[in-house]
């Protein structure tokens, strides 16, 4: 028989356990109400999301074409399988072994047939950066936000015409089972292809220019007189295909660390001392400011001495000879430094800078790819502010022959020479074939331009500095070329930059070309020989 205290203890414990059990049932009941009643719709929708996947369907990017329809940047179609991930997403895989026909989509890989022969103008494709993910391009909001797995154009035409070239991706809504296999397609929105960009580039001429320039660090640009770019090349370059293929990180890193800067676009982003290709604008400044006229004659003695410092003419320095009586046309044809020292002093640095500015030699040309930089045309005021130094007569002399602090890009030189060739019409260079010319008229006397053109024509005939062109007319049916050589000193003991610029035919120009070989040597022989081969190709292919 149990004592009374034991019975009371057991009774209290039993009720305590019953209470705990009742409390647990109440909690469970409340949780069931929360799951089924309060949050029922939430879990129902979540369940649906777990079996319904939204798959982005890639859209083909528009092609970039040469003027004749040749492909400069195209697409390779790649079949990929849809693989669903545990987190409700998906990836596109090139491994098709585990895929069924219903789980395949078309993806596209960018392809550049010319490889490094046109890379600086084209640009390349790269993964969307972290800061760009989810953002909408304000120029084309209809394309939607950028996704982390998508590519976008970087530099060149790929970047400039991103909105035109980029397609709008499609979407497929797929129901999957518990194992992630497709059950059925619930809906589909087809992708919208990007539009093609037809450029002004002549495919054959581009290949020819790249062939002649290959291995020579520098730049080449060829346009018509309305600004259409026929060929555009910077060396060294890079193959944009390396960005589209996996496993090329070492190659890319090697290019980025290359001291020759293969990603550097020397046509538009490089500024160099122009040397004598700057002399035509100095001549125009002297004529327009009435410092000289068409009858002005200078007697070259080979050297000008100022305060015991001698400024010589190249003909005197190299051969110990003088030019004698020299008018403006002869001074341009023979690139007579002493003539330009003299007229530069007569007109003054401010007026030279004024006319260089008028012809766009210290401004962006407005070419339709990113990365262009402005040239530098110094003035006494600029030197005082920037260098905290005074301007001396020697600075004027150096400026008058395109030396000193004068620094311009190849595209600026080509654009200003083009304006001289057609009566002062300064046109914006462009790649887009469907873009109308944008030109402005430089207020300059035609008679002054004609006098400068005459000197440039004589430079490409016997007696001028461009001996590589002396027999051009004989071999091309009487077609004459107007040109200017340039040999720009980089430093006292360094190899000079070699320049050559020309337009042809001289009376009705079809093309304007500028060649720069960085630290290449003499402009007449180094850059001139390349220019001659390019001119031979053009007029043999398009005229004869």
Automatic annotation (TrEMBL):
Gene3D superfamilies: DD-peptidase/beta-lactamase superfamily, Penicillin-binding protein 2a (Domain 2)
Residue ranges of the TM segments: 12-33
Domain of life: Bacteria
Keyword GTP-binding included in the entry's annotation: no
Keyword annotations: Cell membrane, Cell shape, Cell wall biogenesis/degradation, Membrane, Peptidoglycan synthesis, Transmembrane, Transmembrane helix
Gene Ontology BP annotations: cell wall organization; response to antibiotic
Subcellular localization(s) per the UniProt record: Cell membrane; Membrane
Membrane-protein topology: Single-pass membrane protein
Record carries keyword ATP-binding: no
GO CC, alphabetical: plasma membrane
GO molecular function: beta-lactamase activity; penicillin binding
All copies of domain Penicillin-binding protein dimerisation, residue ranges: 106-185
Domain Penicillin-binding protein transpeptidase intervals: 219-535
Protein name per UniProt: Penicillin-binding protein 2
UniProt organism field: Candidatus Woesebacteria bacterium RIFOXYD1_FULL_41_28
Species lineage: Bacteria, Candidatus Woeseibacteriota
């Amino acid at each position: 028989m149990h004592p009374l205290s034991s019975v009371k203890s057991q009774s209290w414990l039993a009720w305590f356990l019953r209470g705990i059990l009742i409390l647990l049932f109440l909690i469970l009941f409340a949780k069931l109400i929360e799951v089924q009643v309060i949050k029922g719709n939430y879990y129902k929708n979540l369940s649906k999301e777990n079996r319904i996947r939204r798959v982005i369907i890639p859209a083909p990017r528009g092609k970039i074409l040469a003027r004749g329809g040749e492909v400069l940047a195209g697409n390779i179609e790649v079949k990929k399988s849809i693989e669903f991930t545990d987190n409700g997403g998906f990836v596109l895989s090139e491994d098709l072994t585990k895929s069924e026909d219903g789980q395949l989509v078309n993806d596209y890989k960018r392809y550049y047939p010319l490889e490094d022969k046109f890379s600086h103008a084209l640009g390349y494709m790269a993964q969307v950066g972290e800061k760009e993910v989810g953002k909408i391009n304000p120029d084309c909001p209809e394309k939607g936000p950028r996704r982390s797995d998508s590519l976008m154009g970087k530099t060149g035409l790929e970047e400039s015409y991103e909105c035109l070239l980029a397609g709008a991706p499609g979407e497929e809504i797929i129901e999957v089972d518990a194992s992630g296999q497709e059950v059925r397609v619930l809906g589909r929105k087809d992708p919208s292809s990007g539009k093609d960009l037809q450029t002004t580039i002549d495919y054959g001429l581009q290949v020819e220019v790249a062939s002649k320039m290959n291995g020579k660090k520098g730049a080449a640009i060829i346009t018509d007189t309305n600004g259409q770019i026929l060929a555009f090349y910077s060396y060294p370059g890079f193959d944009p295909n390396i960005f589209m293929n996996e496993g090329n990180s070492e190659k890319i890193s090697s290019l980025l660390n290359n001291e020759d800067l293969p990603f550097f676009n020397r046509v538009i982003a490089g500024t160099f001392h122009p040397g004598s290709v700057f002399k035509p604008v100095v001549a125009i400044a002297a004529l327009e400011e009435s410092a000289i006229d068409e009858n002005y004659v200078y007697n070259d003695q080979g050297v000008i001495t100022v305060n015991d410092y001698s400024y010589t003419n190249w003909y005197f320095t190299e051969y110990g000879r003088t030019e004698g009586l020299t008018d403006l046309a002869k001074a341009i044809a023979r690139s007579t430094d002493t003539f330009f020292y003299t007229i530069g002093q007569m007109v003054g640095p401010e007026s030279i800078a004024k006319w260089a500015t008028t012809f766009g030699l210290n401004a962006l040309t407005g070419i339709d790819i990113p990365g262009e930089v402005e040239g530098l045309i110094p003035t006494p005021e600029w030197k005082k502010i920037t260098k905290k130094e005074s301007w001396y007569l020697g600075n004027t002399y150096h400026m008058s022959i395109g030396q000193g602090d004068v620094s311009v890009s190849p595209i600026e030189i080509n654009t200003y020479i083009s304006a001289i060739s057609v009566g002062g019409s300064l046109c914006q260079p462009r790649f887009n074939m469907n873009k109308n010319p944008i030109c402005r008229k430089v207020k300059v006397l035609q008679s002054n331009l004609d006098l400068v053109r005459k000197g440039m024509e004589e430079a490409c005939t016997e007696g001028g500095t461009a001996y590589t062109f002396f027999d051009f007319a004989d071999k091309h049916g009487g077609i004459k070329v107007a040109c200017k050589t340039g040999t720009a000193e980089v430093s006292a003991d360094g190899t000079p930059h070699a320049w050559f610029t020309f337009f042809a035919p001289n009376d009705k120009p079809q093309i304007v070309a500028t060649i720069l070989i960085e630290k290449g040597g003499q402009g007449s022989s180094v850059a001139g020989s390349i220019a001659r081969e390019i001119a031979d190709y053009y007029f043999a292919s398009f005229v004869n």
